[in-house]
Amino acid sequence: MSLFANVLRVHQWVYEKSGGLVGHRILLGNPTLLLRTVGRKTGQPRTNALTYARDGKDYLVTASNGGSPRPPGWLANLKSAPDSEIQVGRRRIAVTARVTYPDDPEYARRWALVDKVNRGRYTQYQKMTTRPIPVVVLTPR
């Protein structure tokens, strides 16, 4: 496991253990939420710390998996059960997820929002993989 992956794990652990008091903006200053899904195979709760951008009332995250050729497991969990929960700071919000790809008319605009928050990192990740990296729209219910 890479050093950065370990840093991400510690960040998520601090975010969870503090109840969101610490962690919302700790990692490189990027806003971070906790995405809570249910494992599609196990039925077990899963939590992932993800940086996000806002688009009106929606929260935007990318399924970049660090530019890996494989998408992150949480993406398959959301496709299987789009209703999930996010935690932003100390607030828990019920959301419905919608996965968007480059053929979506709003994709480029949304991509620009999340890429700006992450200082161009997602553009670099997209160059590392041939799979299109989706932007996931999390809409509060």
Automatic annotation (TrEMBL):
One of its GO terms (cellular component) is plasma membrane. InterPro entries: F420H2_quin_Rdtase, Split_barrel_FMN-bd. Pfam families: F420H2_quin_red (PF04075). It comes from the Bacteria. GO terms for molecular function: coenzyme F420 binding; oxidoreductase activity. Belongs to the F420H(2)-dependent quinone reductase family. This is Nitroreductase family deazaflavin-dependent oxidoreductase. Transmembrane segments: none annotated. Gene3D superfamilies: Electron Transport, Fmn-binding Protein, Chain A (2.30.110.10). PANTHER family: F420H(2)-DEPENDENT QUINONE REDUCTASE RV1261C. It catalyses: oxidized coenzyme F420-(gamma-L-Glu)(n) + a quinol + H(+) = reduced coenzyme F420-(gamma-L-Glu)(n) + a quinone.
